[in-house]
Design a protein that fits this description.
This protein is of the alpha/beta class. About 35% of the residues lie in helices and about 20% in strands. The protein has 17 helices and 15 strands. The strands form 5 sheets. The chain has a 3-stranded mixed beta sheet with strand order 2-1-15. A 3-stranded mixed beta sheet has the order 3-4-5. Helix 2 runs antiparallel to helix 16, helix 4 crosses helix 5 and helix 16 packs antiparallel against helix 17.
Length: about 450
């Protein structure tokens, strides 16, 4: 069975803007109010996808959400025509308007948690969309996310879809950004590392003080139960509170794993040794931990550069490629760590590739945020519905689609423009035809 990891990147949506909506996301908060370039953002994402595809990695694409979410505004009491709803929201609740225009779904690491079929007791790949209840602008995503995933992974004999967890603080779930699967290779049974920020019920009360902990232990445990994973297949580790208070709002901002390799910062886990011991005990192949000490890269540098929000990709010869954002070159300590500690160290990481994703980075999302990893067998890849696996033809059509429909300038004040809403709906309607997804958006149903 040929199992390959497919990276499904989120297309950046036409309403990409800098509204500073994510409390605890330092980059998002610090760039609030700046003018964004949605066209450049989408093209940067597509260029990253294309370059990885050209390098031999399996690459997929996921569509953005319908924005602005006029249905959400109407549910909140804004009535009238689309233009009247937008105008009233801009006047009475500008932060709500910004939230319903967020393009945050481009960070598909938060879209869902996935268990490949090789690990599931029923031999199917399992999907649970994240409830993202910790912030209103992301809470709006799961319904459409679920429809998109069900449209692509439609074969019920091969794929299983689970309901979103209850959207309450006790079951706060942020998806694969807090989940890492480790195994000797993608076809080997794996161990699932779930990282949480707090316990809703019980616990010792040790939690971050400055920023909220978004993932709960209870949510991670519930997803593992939904997917049929046993205790021998799972490790639950608490994220270090100091990291969260430094701006590490998800585990994928401080650690990244793939195959047998776990690249992590010294302050990633509250119980570093206990986490490593539990992984070693459960893994069939030896764990290869790659530890970055705080003396080499401070927490501030880790957050500013998004070193750990890089993509760690497996190569056929057993080596690994690390795809880092351009900001890693701008921090001397980080770039030195990449050259002297990682590339020169005794580990499989043999190549560092730099990608420009500045439009995403300014909102707090690096290369790893932009993709959802799904390990699929050859038969499962053949069973995918729609046209979502990237090739040269699809890439060219998506670039042309972006250039036709996207603005090259968008300020928060522009979100009330009714023309933007019309432009976005027209673009998304064309996109679903291009990707052959069917009617996944509310306005199409």
């Amino acid at each position: 069975m040929s199992v390959r990891e497919v990276n499904f990147d989120g297309l950046v949506g036409p309403t990409h803007n800098y509204s500073g909506l994510a409390h605890g996301n330092v980059a998002s908060m610090s760039h609030e109010g700046l003018v964004a370039n949605p066209r450049e953002a989408a093209l940067q994402g597509l260029e990253k996808m294309k370059s990885l595809m050209d390098a031999g990695y399996a690459q997929g694409v996921l569509p953005p959400q319908q924005r602005p979410d006029l249905g959400a505004l109407r549910d909140l009491g804004f009535a009238g025509s689309d233009a009247q709803v937008l105008a009233r929201a801009a006047d009475e609740a500008p932060q709500v308007l910004r939230a319903v225009c967020s393009a945050s779904s481009m960070w598909t690491a938060n879209a869902a948690t996935v268990t490949p079929s090789v690990d599931a007791p029923d031999g199917r790949a399992h999907f649970t969309p994240a409830n993202l209840q910790s912030s209103f602008h992301r809470y709006l995503e799961p319904a459409t996310t679920g429809r998109v995933l069900a449209s692509i992974f439609a074969d019920e004999a091969r794929f299983a879809h689970h309901p979103v967890l209850p959207a309450t603080p006790a079951f706060s779930d942020e998806g694969a950004a807090n989940h890492t699967r480790l195994a000797g290779d993608h076809g080997e049974p794996g161990v699932h590392l779930y990282v949480y920020g707090r316990q809703a019920f019980g616990g010792d009360g040790i939690a971050p003080r400055r920023y909220p902990a978004r993932q709960t232990l209870e949510a991670s445990q519930a997803v593992a139960r939904q997917h049929g994973l046993s205790d021998a297949q799972t490790v639950f580790a608490q994220q270090h509170p100091e990291a969260i208070d430094a701006g590490v709002f998800h585990n994928d901002v401080i650690a990244v794993g793939n195959g047998p390799v776990l690249l992590y910062h010294e302050v990633a886990f509250r119980d570093e040794q206990g986490t490593l011991d539990a992984l070693r005990e459960r893994m069939a192949s030896p764990l290869i931990p790659v530890r970055v000490p705080v003396e080499a890269v401070s927490l501030d540098d880790a957050v500013a550069s998004y070193l750990f929000n890089s993509q760690l990709l497996s190569n056929p010869d057993g080596t690994m490629t690390l795809v880092v954002p351009g900001e890693c070159q701008e921090r001397e300590a980080v770039w030195r760590c990449l050259q002297d500690h990682l590339l020169a160290g005794h580990n499989p990481i043999s190549e560092v590739v730099v990608k420009d994703v500045k439009q995403s980075m300014r909102n707090g999302g690096g290369p790893a945020c932009l993709r959802l990893r799904v390990a699929l067998s050859e038969a499962e890849r053949a069973a995918l519905s729609g046209r979502v696996l990237l090739d040269d033809a699809l890439h060219g059509e998506l670039v042309a689609w972006v250039e036709r429909h996207y603005r090259d300038r968008l300020a928060p004040a522009d979100l009330a423009d009714p023309a933007l809403a019309s432009e976005t709906l027209a673009a998304l309607d064309e996109l679903t035809g291009l990707l052959r997804l069917g009617s996944v958006y509310p306005f199409q149903r």
